[in-house]
Write a structure and sequence with these properties.
Elements (H helix, E strand, L loop, with lengths): L1 H25 L1 H35 L3 H16 L5 H10 L3 H12 L4 H8 L7 H13 L2 H25 L15 H37 L2 H11 L1 H8 L4 H10 L2 H11 L6 H25 L21 H19 L4
Length: 346
């Protein structure tokens, strides 16, 4: 049975790679434009907003600052999330951006501040967009409203807390403290943290460029903005927010909470060899998206914030007139991903 599963997995991966390579060759111009779009986003948005926080997450663990933060954070962590020092990762995830929390968890595990089981538990909830992306990009740039961006950021903050409480009861267990590794000198920790942040950003930029190319290729294949919009939500959050903004803030709120596969793979890469259930992680992101959307809707009504909540001007349901090849490609890609995550350890 295991041999059959392995052969099926290998065949599915090979078929997907061949199909993707063929699409990239056929739609080479659109693919190249997608890569340029992704790299531009990295230079204009990703690197300036994430570099300080990635440096900070590395320096907190490498410089021994976690020992100074552990006492107040452990109180919050045990009460809400059933965690100890790794609560720092949750806080950095909310304030820093999508992969920063995962990178902090990896640094904490490598430094000996937390055990592998606690790192796994924290990894499920240490995912969130930073205030720079939500308030500046989504709120001000897309909707011309800082208040709306703050409302969305608050909704995401509460969604992470609620998800952490849920995760506390799903991933049960107590964690024994690990012996902390020797702390290097301040100068060494400073340089190592910069190098770690640079390498982390280069990896993320590569992932963003790839998914941007996939998005552009799907758009060229289908020729339908509605299908492309659905694919964007599934794949990459930035393009999804731009396109969904025409339909109102609630679809955008779900996209921000969900994150998209581009963000998910950035998180997995930052976590390194920390084992976790990909299926549970994916389900958590759906729940986080739904909670963020629901709370955003509630906050808009509660505080009377002027905002386009929904719009009937454009629907993102798939059109029957869309080319068959586009629909088939999207379905095959989705099925392959679901098969991949379902075969992982629960």
């Amino acid at each position: 049975m295991n041999a059959l599963k392995y052969r099926l997995s290998t065949a599915a991966k090979a078929l997907s790679a061949i199909m993707l390579a063929g699409c990239f060759l056929i739609y080479g111009q659109e693919c190249a434009e997608g890569v340029l779009t992704g790299l531009y986003f990295c230079a204009a948005e990703l690197i300036p907003s994430l570099f300080p926080f990635m440096f900070l997450s590395a320096f907190i663990s490498k410089g021994g600052l976690i020992s100074k933060l552990s006492k107040p954070l452990s109180v919050i962590g045990k009460a809400f999330f059933g965690l100890s020092e790794s609560t720092a990762a949750v806080i950095l995830a909310i304030t820093g951006g999508f992969p920063v929390g995962a990178k902090c968890i990896r640094e904490l595990l490598d430094s000996g501040a937390i055990c592998e089981k606690e790192a796994e538990k924290a990894a499920y909830i240490s995912v969130g967009a930073g205030p720079g992306f939500i308030i500046s990009f989504v709120g001000i740039k897309l909707f011309s409203s800082a208040e709306l961006g703050l409302c969305l950021f608050s909704a995401q903050l509460i969604s992470v807390i609620l998800l952490g409480v849920l995760n506390k009861h799903i991933c049960k267990g107590s964690f024994s403290a690990k012996s902390t590794a020797r702390v290097p000198s301040a100068g060494t920790a400073f340089i190592d943290s910069i190098i770690s942040a640079v390498y982390g950003l280069l990896e993320m930029c590569g992932i963003v460029a790839f998914f941007s190319a996939v998005q552009a290729t799907i758009g060229a294949i289908t020729g339908d903005d509605r299908i492309t919009g659905v694919a964007d939500v599934f794949l990459e959050v930035t393009n999804a927010c731009e396109k969904l903004s025409e339909s109102g803030i609630i679809p955008v709120a779900f996209a921000v909470g969900f994150g998209g596969l581009c963000v998910h793979f950035q998180v997995f890469r930052a976590l390194g060899n920390i084992r976790l259930s990909k299926l549970l992680f994916f389900l958590y992101r759906i729940i986080q998206g739904l909670i963020t959307a629901a709370l955003t809707y509630a906050f808009i009504g509660l505080f009377h914030i002027p905002a386009p909540v929904f719009s009937s001007a454009k629907s993102f349901a798939p059109s029957l007139s869309a080319p068959i090849i586009g629909s088939v490609m999207f379905v095959i890609t989705s099925v392959f991903f679901i098969y991949t995550i379902c075969k992982e350890r629960l």
